[in-house]
Amino acid sequence: MSRYSLKDRMVRSIALRKGEVVMRADFEKMGSASQISRVLKELIAEGKIVRLGYGTYAKARPSTLSGKPVPRVTLEELAQEALGKLDVPVTLGRAQRAYVEGRTTQIPVRTTFNTGHRRISRKITVGISTVRYENNYSARA
Q1: Model pTM score
Q2: For residue 134, which phi and psi values (nearest 5 degrees)?
Q3: pLDDT of 9-41, one tens digit each?
Q4: Are residues 67 and 97 in the same domain?
């Protein structure tokens, strides 16, 4: 039996991870599902992590404006990392790609990713901002 509590082990595991996204599946071997759920709720309440979606969390820091916990990086970076961990290949959406390539000067408001020929139903949200998905099914040739 470990002399450290499950919470201590999970906090250490989160701190030692290189990326910003933490998946619930990363903790499966540490304890039962109910124990992990309890600790994740405690970490959210303490402001160490924020919930992005089902089984997906991000490392957090206090906001300079409100003091509430916010992710340390942008929603776009978090979504790319989370989808990468789920083995979903993504590219930038049409509007973001046009802006990056200099074909338009309009800054895209929404974070959108093209998932190729995959349909994604996972919702990734930070505050009121949600990731949207495009796929190649909508492009009729």
Answers
A1: 0.86
A2: -115, 155
A3: 999 999 999 999 999 999 999 999 999 999 999
A4: no
